[in-house]
């Protein structure tokens, strides 16, 4: 094992097996990896030749391409980018070294690029010194300038970054009008984790009391946002740190009690009443989702759907870890009574005209059970109605869902189910559950029940796993828009073809 020590305190930055890497190779590779993670593109452009900068970008893209699709590696790299975490940087280093040991061609491709970089800077003593003395921890400190609160009107200089002007922040000020702020009310039974940062406020553990916490989050949507995108810093370009003018970014989180939550929500709906649209849209996220990403996704969906009412997130304690599927399964069962109480609260105490809900993936288990347990006869006459319920890629046993669905028609005006045979995540869930179909499966296993509009989305373009198609694809977002905005049935919505399966009618997206 080889350890690297830098700085006056001789702090160990990372360690790795050196046997297959030459001295200069390892230094350049880890310098490039660290620079791209911390997003110091201006230094690269200033301190290196154009050729060297381009070659370094190619090197990083080569590394990213190798790891793209390997969840645990992507998670380490993304966390290193967002949190500038030394431990996650170390993990990325370990994966990189392992890949080079196991894939000679990959290792050779890296060495070829490193040789080109070396040739570009061999006569540049200052550049060589910068690489040889590279300190990832110092880059983390420099990165503080990207963490400033962009909602304040003050321009801050210096601070913890020494005599360096906060260039990134002044860019935010100049382009302040290049993004819009989307308010997202929320309720959660997650346990608070870190009160110092809105991004880390809630973790993946349960609030053991079972009591809901309420609040209001603010999310930026850039004006050049593309429908269906959840813009974030990209690992394959020099764009490394969050910027509200370019990314869907969690800006702020305020927490308060139930009374203030209801008061503020009523006030928001009162303002919207002028446009005759005092409706609510509740989003229940799926498995492997952090609070931060759930809020961002809620804002993106609301913005893309041009929803005229108020968006609300219900966030249950997903651990946001690809490997913790069973933990999330336990937590989604635990949250069901809390979601039931929350839906009753929205129906009876907000002055809303109607409540709509969209659940994704495992979140459908909680929503389906909560609706199944709802007894509208016990609600006051002035209670809001449940209007549209959307089950998107539901990761719930298909037979269980069919049993629930028999009574759904008594609970809400319209139910819509989106399913896809391209959903690799649901395929894995099916295997995990002994081969029993999921409600989000399509093909011959498509769930078709009276009172539910079943839509086969297999022919639309999807993400890598094909599991977030409801929020990533323009066609499906447009379909949900016409459903929520105009309450149009499937035969009145563009792009849907009527088909039958076992003499039962369903709908198919046109290719």
What does this entry look like structurally?
The chain has about 500 residues and is of the alpha/beta class. The protein has helices at about 25-40, 40-45, 50-65, 70-85, 85-100, 105-120, 125-130, 135-140, 165-175, 260-270, 290-305, 325-350, 365-370, 400-405, 425-430, 470, 475-485; strands at about 1-5, 10-15, 180-190, 190, 200-205, 215-220, 250-255, 280-285, 310-315, 355-360, 385-390, 415-420, 450-455, 495-500, 505-510. The chain is built from 17 helices and 15 strands. Strands 7-6-3-9-8-10-11-12-13-15-14 form an eleven-stranded mixed beta sheet, with helices on both faces. The longest helix has 25 residues, at about 325-350. It is globular, with a radius of gyration of 25 Å. The termini are far apart.
CATH architecture of the largest domain: 3-Layer(aba) Sandwich
- Count of domain modules: 2
Measured as a percent range, the helix fraction is 40-55%
Instruction: State the end-to-end distance.
Output: 53 Å
CATH class of the largest domain: Alpha Beta
CATH topology of the largest domain: Rossmann fold
Envelope shape: globular
Radius of gyration: 25 Å
Average pLDDT across residues?
79
Largest sheet: number of strands, sense, barrel closure? 11 strands, mixed
Number of strands: 15
Protein name: Esterase/lipase superfamily enzyme
Pfam family, one: DUF900
InterPro entries: AB_hydrolase_fold (IPR029058), DUF900_hydrolase (IPR010297)
